Fold this protein.
Amino acid sequence: QVQLVESGGGSVQAGGSLRLSCSASQYTTTRYYMGWFRQGPGKEREGVASVPVPGRTKYADSVKGRFTISQDNAKNTLYLQMDSLKPEDTAMYYCAAGPYAAMWELRAADIRYWGQGTQVTVSS
């Protein structure tokens, strides 16, 4: 069965760092590609980063150079290291599993499965 469980959110001041984790079932990681999405207050859900192809990564322009996505297949865990956080990064962050195209395009509409989300709040 598909299982996605996020952890690691919290509150931090601007310029700080957080590391999100997403524990997935082996069923999930062997059948779908993985990524992170977020939804800020009053905003649509948007793609943040993904692993569309093993060994390759994709980032939204707004987080390039600040966020790093990684996937540990031995632990079936997806990570998102977030550095130099800004107030505009405040959002609910979701781990996602879906097809290649959805992850390559960071397209929320085509995501198959979502985790429950973890809140990230960045204060100025």
